[in-house]
Amino acid sequence: MIGPDVPTRVERDSLGEGRVPIDAYWGVHTLRALENFPITKRPISVYPELVVALASVKQAAARANRELGVLTEQKAAWIDEACQRIIDGELHDQFVVGVIQGGAGTSTNMNANEVIANFALEIGGYEKGRYDVLHPIDDVNRSQSTNDTYPTAVKLAMAFSLRTMLTELDLLRIAFGKKGREFHEVLKVGRTQLQDAVPMTLGQEFHGFATTLGEDVDRLRETIKLLSEVNLGATAIGTGITAEPGYTAAVVRTLSEITGLTLESAPDLIEATSDTGVFMTFSSALKRSAIKLSKICNDLRLLSSGPQAGLGEINLPPKQAGSSIMPGKVNPVIPEAVSQVAYAVAGADLTVTMAAESGQLQLNAFEPVIAHSLLQSITWMRQACWTLRVNCVDGITANTDRLEHMVSTSVGVITALIPFIGYTEAATLAKLALATGRPVADLVVEAGLMSREEVERQLSPSKLSGIRPITTAIPVQQLQAEPSE
């Protein structure tokens, strides 16, 4: 793995010696992980929020240990500065272990310990590897174990990532809402079970998309509180062994200050160390949002199908040539890509479920695949929301002439006349309209059931769409115009 011409330094662990690149901030424990887990070829640094979360946990631990007198002021200051600089973006490329790894996250924790230790040594004026001055485990990992630092960092990373994803999801909601207002008076035929139903407006349809996305913003935001319960300070299995009395309270308080999140210690630290239920809850909420987003994308593809032989009600902005053989063909590539993200999120949810079920006794060894699955899902969802908004929704236009023609020839409009002519008469005239191709309004007038003026009044766009209903209806045009707080 390390070329013969690369200068190295020798580091030792309980298994023996290892040769580490002399310029690397990571050490022998990370080296072993690189040798053992060359699986995904994706380092944990692909999730910068996880790196920031790890550094935040280590920074909080150093401050708490200094407060309790178990870490010297000098060592704590070096570690604190190293962590802060990593939080600010430095040395993320040194977090090199693979996202999939055995050991319940030990390799990730050791990678963080070693990078922070060597960075702290450099800040103090010492060479990398001078662990006699400041040690990755005895100092950086003081009062900790992988079993409390890793799940805490994973929860923080998810909370950090979720906030940025929710921003994009909310912006997408707003974009659909703007289209709802733009298409406020564009009448169209609604459909149920892919068959013609009653009229509605295109604005109502897009407003519905906005509403359903807003519900997901709310549900996902609720999960941040669930992610705020941590087991930090309980070390190996939740008994608090090796941690000073008062450490748990101090480190959770300090970590809250560092992250700006309102964190709290789990009421049962042994249960919290082995339980991964929060990840299943979070994954389920994320899957719900992804599947609903894919359903919207399916609707956009159907509504824009054609342009000649499909529904052709709306136009999606053309983004690339659609075929290497059919000139002029343009495909709905953005909704297609977003749906594929949804499929991946659904698959990740099953992975999380299986990993959560497979934990034994006092620890779940499979949290790395849980972390990878969820952080990847959040990242992909964030980018999917962005591209759907910018490259698709913002540029959607309505084919108003086609929509108007379909409404004017639709048999479904007779539903609006049932209160006046009855269901039986309406059904008879609907069949006649289909058989003859004649407008429903003409047939109703000819049958002497209603006057022309009354038919036109009841078949006006405002009444057909429920905007000015005959009876009370849900207000459909109220929409928050700015991102929710």
What does the model show?
The protein is mainly α and 485 residues long. It contains 18 helices and eight strands. It has helices at residues 28-36, 48-67, 73-87, 106-123, 136-140, 146-182, 202-227, 247-259, 269-274, 277-303, 333-357, 367-391, 400-408, 418-421, 423-436, 440-446, 452-458, 461-464; strands spanning 8-13, 16-21, 187-192, 195-201, 229-230, 264-265, 314-315, 397-398. The strands form four sheets. The protein has a two-stranded antiparallel ribbon with strand order 1-2. Strands 3-4 form a two-stranded antiparallel ribbon. The longest helix is centred in the middle third of the chain and has 37 residues, at 146-182. The two termini are 48 Å apart.
Strand order of the largest sheet: 1-2
Based on secondary structure, the structural category is mainly alpha
What's the helical proportion of residues? Answer: 55-70%
Kindly state the number of beta strands: 8
Instruction: Determine the N-to-C terminus distance.
Output: 48 Å
Shape: elongated
Q: Show unreliable segments.
A: 469-481
Strand content: 5-15%
Number of helical stretches of at least 4 residues: 18
Order of helices and strands: EEHHHHHHEEHEHEHHEHHEHHHHHH
CA radius of gyration is 30 Å
Let me know the largest β-sheet: 2 strands, antiparallel
